């Protein structure tokens, strides 16, 4: 009998470890009991319910335990041996992207045949906290419904416009492995813009492999001395969506209501947090870790460090998003109207010009550090 852990790969299709075990012996599936403390815990529990049914059809019992050893997340390419011509890790995404595209995507692994001696287990029904019910109402258990509803032809031109329905909303399912990058490549591989984002996810895992402290320490060492002004009260204003900048506040309220935020708006909210408010990017990352259904440590750490200007291939520090211009440029009025009440009238917590100048002065204090 073989035990197979399901943690980062909550699927029976395109699961190499599971398929191999099913060919060798009788299999028992084990997974960790979700704590139900974060948004992703709730999403993971819903996906485990779905996985339990799929495993039952294959005669495989699913047992929940307090702790399990995590399985490795699935990536689109095997980048473990990829390095620059100098033999060093890639620090820029575009060369990494090109190197990946010279590789071949592996073949899809078929769902295994059912076991001859079927087993049955009752899936434990955990009591969801009251706040979590809204997430259960927003997110489908079946990733196939989300895949079918994704109009990828609009993705390239529309993904930056929050008011459109051009994004895939597949990130939560990727984060827990309910679907694999290879499955998405098989379906949407003809769309270069979408595949580029899957490779950005690969780049995050590649970077974390070389820099294990990606989620806690700046990769650009001079930023360890950056004069952030941590203020819990200021952070709570941002968390509640009461900054007085409609696009930022709409994004934070979408996050609270759904466990999700449009990617363009995430960048604006993160930039506002780290530069307008001079709050440590690690604090923002921690808040997202609790509230995002698609939280992925490597991807989110890379993204926060990119916005904060502290990571590899990061946005230049002087690039400070103006939330008002971003709202206009990306035609986000309908998005804002969806998430803010009609009587929204909040005084801006900071003036954009003054906040930008303050951020740049702070950067000057560490600019010459190496």
From TrEMBL:
Family statement drawn from the similarity comment of this UniProt entry: Belongs to the DNA photolyase family.
Domain Cryptochrome/DNA photolyase FAD-binding: 194-342
Swiss-Prot/TrEMBL GO biological process terms: nucleobase-containing compound metabolic process; response to light stimulus; response to stress
Known cofactor(s): FAD
Cofactor note as given: Binds 1 FAD per subunit.
Pfam families xrefs: FAD_binding_7 (PF03441)
Top-rank taxon: Bacteria
Protein name, entry field: Deoxyribodipyrimidine photo-lyase
Ligand binding (FAD): 155, 194, 294-296
Keyword set, alphabetical order: Chromophore, FAD, Flavoprotein, Lyase
Gene3D superfamilies documented for this protein: 1.25.40.80, DNA Cyclobutane Dipyrimidine Photolyase, subunit A, domain 3
Organism classification: Bacteria, Bacillati, Bacillota, Bacilli, Bacillales
Organism: Metalysinibacillus saudimassiliensis
GO molecular function: deoxyribodipyrimidine photo-lyase activity; DNA binding; FAD binding
């Amino acid at each position: 009998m073989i035990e197979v852990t399901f943690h980062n790969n909550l699927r029976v299709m395109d699961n190499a470890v599971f398929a191999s075990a099913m060919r060798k012996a009788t299999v028992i599936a084990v997974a960790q009991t979700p704590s139900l403390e974060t948004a992703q815990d709730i999403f993971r529990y819903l996906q485990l319910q779905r996985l339990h049914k799929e495993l039952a059809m294959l005669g495989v019992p699913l047992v929940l335990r307090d702790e399990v050893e995590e399985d490795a997340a699935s990536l689109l390419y095997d980048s473990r041996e990829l390095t620059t011509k100098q033999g060093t890790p890639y620090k820029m995404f575009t060369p990494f992207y090109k190197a990946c595209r010279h590789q071949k995507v592996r073949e899809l692994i078929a769902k295994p045949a059912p076991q001859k001696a079927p087993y049955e287990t009752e899936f434990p029904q955990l009591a969801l906290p009251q706040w979590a019910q809204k997430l259960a109402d927003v997110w489908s258990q079946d990733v196939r419904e989300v895949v079918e509803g994704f109009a990828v032809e609009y993705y390239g031109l529309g993904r930056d416009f929050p008011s459109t329905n051009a994004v895939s909303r597949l990130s939560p399912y990727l984060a827990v492995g309910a679907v694999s990058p290879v499955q998405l490549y098989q379906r949407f591989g003809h769309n270069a813009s979408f595949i580029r984002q899957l490779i950005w996810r690969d780049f995050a895992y590649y970077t974390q492999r070389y820099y294990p402290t990606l989620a806690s320490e700046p990769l650009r060492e001079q930023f360890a001395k950056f004069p952030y002004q941590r203020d819990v009260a200021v952070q709570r204003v941002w968390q509640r969506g009461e900054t007085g900048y409609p696009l930022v506040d709409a994004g934070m309220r979408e996050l609270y209501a759904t466990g999700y935020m449009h990617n363009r708006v995430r960048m604006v909210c993160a930039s506002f947090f780290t530069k307008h408010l001079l709050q440590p990017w690690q604090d923002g990352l921690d808040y997202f870790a609790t509230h995002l259904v698609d939280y992925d440590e490597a991807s989110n750490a890379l993204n926060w460090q990119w916005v904060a200007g502290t990571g590899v291939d990061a946005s230049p520090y002087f690039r400070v998003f103006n939330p008002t211009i971003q709202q206009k440029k990306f035609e986000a009025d309908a998005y804002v109207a969806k998430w803010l009440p009609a009587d929204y009238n909040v005084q801006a917590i900071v003036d954009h010009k003054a906040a930008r100048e303050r951020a740049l002065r702070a950067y000057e204090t560490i600019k010459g550090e190496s």
